[in-house]
Automatic annotation (TrEMBL):
<dbReference type="Pfam" id="PF00534">
    <property type="entry name" value="Glycos_transf_1"/>
</dbReference>
<dbReference type="InterPro" id="IPR001296">
    <property type="entry name" value="Glyco_trans_1"/>
</dbReference>
<dbReference type="GO" id="GO:0016757">
    <property type="term" value="F:glycosyltransferase activity"/>
</dbReference>
<keyword id="KW-0808">Transferase</keyword>
<feature type="domain" description="Glycosyl transferase family 1">
    <location>
        <begin position="236"/>
        <end position="351"/>
    </location>
</feature>
<protein>
    <submittedName>
        <fullName>Glycosyl transferase</fullName>
    </submittedName>
</protein>
Length: 405
């Protein structure tokens, strides 16, 4: 159970932007979207905002003006040429080199790691609340430095415990790193923001119910983008399905490739997402080519929304999710969803998706055929199976969170 929490008004908030900055120039993942949503909302709040970024050369501290400049550059995807320091530090990542160059120009202060504590103490007011929403940069060094600011508090948004529960689907060393992160959360966080009751239960299972920090559950908000121009191809004006997410083993693209390779549904499959890791067989199958399967990485939100709006449905056979943004976003667009019966999807979406066990490819193939038969070429001709669905909103999320931080 969560602990009763007293509402507070922080004199300032310090948002860790390390994860978001590290993703400069790339299509944002679900975690990136959350960190961006916090940046966007906190800039609108009357409480002063600061930003903290770990770079290759040390730490940068941004004030509200610097945070606003960062957001504006992210929105415009307009980055300066990297300076000499940026080119030397990030020679293999020009987007990040340009981002760090811009951040240095807008920084309130900078410090080498050993001097992070004095920098924070010099510039942050007593009682500042530090927010980490991206699982990045929550190190003992940062925690020790934060404790040098009188009365500071720490809030962490926990997305999931997947690295511990499904280590076979992680990059080498990920489970060990996450175990250390979760230990630090349990020991040092004054508040843990859980994106679902499932995540809170998973945290309790790993930390022990008696060792839980104060917690609040706040579902992540959804702001469906206005559909833009859908990429065209052989699927145009034909039945097609979308699967959305990084191509990694946990997302279970292998199930869909098996269905399209062996059971040949009368529809196209559009795989929207970058290639990830530990997935050599899936990558080899995609490189060899499967009829009616198309890989479309790098699309922006408006393009994906346009594809979803005209699709026969979103396919989501994932083995595990912390929240599952793609099905929620699809449902918000009135797009049919076929998904694995994950507890978090039942919590957030209830009976809206069609559920099918992620190991039963014949059931998936049957459901896919049924959904393809209901396909209509124009969105307004499609069956509106989610009519009346109201997705979680960021306003509701922040209403639950901001009075506590």
């Amino acid at each position: 159970m969560g602990i009763t929490i007293t509402e507070i008004t922080a004199p300032a908030r310090l948002l860790d932007l390390t994860r978001l900055v590290s993703r400069a120039g790339r299509v944002r993942t679900g975690v990136d979207r959350v960190e961006y949503a916090y940046l966007d909302r906190l800039l609108q709040e009357p409480v002063p905002l600061f930003g903290l970024v770990r770079t290759s050369l040390g730490y940068l501290l941004l004030d509200g003006t610097g945070c606003a400049a960062l957001k504006a550059q992210m929105d415009a995807q307009d980055w300066p040429e990297a300076d000499l320091l940026g080119r030397l530090a990030r020679r293999r990542d020009p987007h990040r080199a340009g981002t760090e160059t811009a951040l240095r120009a807008n920084a309130l202060a900078r410090a080498i790691p050993a001097l992070l504590g004095p920098m924070l103490r010099r510039h942050l007011p007593a009682g500042t609340v530090y927010l980490n929403t991206g699982h990045s940069n929550f190190s003992e060094q940062v925690i020790t430095a934060l404790r040098r600011v009188e009365g500071s508090r720490i809030a962490v948004l926990l997305h999931d415990t997947i690295p511990l529960d499904w280590p076979q689907y992680q990059r080498a060393g990920s489970a060990q790193r996450f175990a250390g992160f979760l230990r630090r959360v349990g020991k040092h966080a004054d508040l843990v923001i859980c994106n679902s009751e499932v995540t809170r239960a998973d945290m309790a299972r790993h930390l022990g119910a008696d060792a839980l920090p104060e917690t609040v559950v706040a579902h992540l908000g959804i702001t469906p983008p206005a559909p833009g121009t859908a990429p065209e191809g052989p699927w145009t004006k034909a039945p097609y399905f979308v699967t959305l997410g990084t191509i990694e083993p946990r997302k279970n693209h292998a199930l869909l490739l098996d269905i399209w390779r062996e059971l040949t549904p009368a529809a196209h499959l559009l795989i929207c997402g970058a290639r990830g890791w530990n997935n050599a067989e899936v990558f080899a199958a995609l490189d060899a080519g499967i009829p009616n399967v198309h890989e479309l990485p790098g699309l922006d939100d408006a393009q994906i929304a346009a594809l979803l709006a005209r699709s026969a449905g979103l396919l989501f056979p994932s083995y595990a999710e912390g929240y599952g943004l793609p099905p929620v976003e699809a449902a918000a667009l009135d797009v049919p969803v076929l998904a694995a019966p994950l507890p978090v999807l039942r919590e957030v979406l209830g009976d809206i998706p069609i559920y099918a066990d992620e190991s039963d490819r014949y059931l998936w193939a049957s459901r896919i055929r049924q959904m393809a038969k209901g396909y209509r070429a124009q969105p307004d001709e499609a069956e509106n199976t989610q009519a009346g669905y109201l997705p979680p909103t960021w306003d509701a999320h922040f209403k639950a969170v901001l009075t506590l931080i």
